[in-house]
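Recall the central idea of this unit: under ordinary conditions, the amino acid sequence of a chain determines the structure it adopts. In this exercise we apply that idea directly, starting from the sequence alone.
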Amino acid sequence: MAFLDECSEGKASRLLKYYPMSKSQLAQDLLVLYLLDFKTKGYFVEFGATDGIKMSNTYLLEKQFGWFGILAEPAKVWHKELVENRECHIEKLCVWTNSDSLLEFNEFEIGEYSGLKNQNNFNGSLYSSYLVKTISLGDLLEKFNAPKEIDYLSIDTEGSEYDILLSFDFDKYDIKIISCEHNLSENREMIYKLLSANGYVRIYEQVSRWDDWYIKV
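Accordingly, the structure predicted from this sequence is:
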């Protein structure tokens, strides 16, 4: 948590208090709390969501700070537990550049690495492959009547992040913070250019290793 160096003593102490409750892989949820000054009753959108707890960037926000929002997860392996573990909107369609397409989805034995066949570079043992119906980010937000001001968007789709953002109308929603997995792929620079063109600034480039963080300016 390199950003702790910038915190006041009081804020750092408060973040450390919640560290044992964090479910994020690299304290992403704590960085959101830091950036938004421990905001309560915020609104999040997160995909992929796994079971709602494992490596979740929003579980702490929901359970400890009263946030609400949308979780999207197309991998069937997670669906039962996701519904049981969370109290927000849950979407089982696959977030993609457009709605109503049918795409092949690869589910791996390590479930968190599952993703669309033509977007996923993971070479692990394949558990199953099946077709998933898609929904665009814009249609997802409309479906659940998301507010026009969204505090945090977390994107981890194992390779399709750029395509999802490319088709999104950023003028319709004010998203304050975006964290986007890049895994050091060539899409990282493409995502940077796209979000920069839509009024975002990249911050804390080394904090999450495989994620980039953007704030609206």
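The chain has a mean pLDDT of 89.
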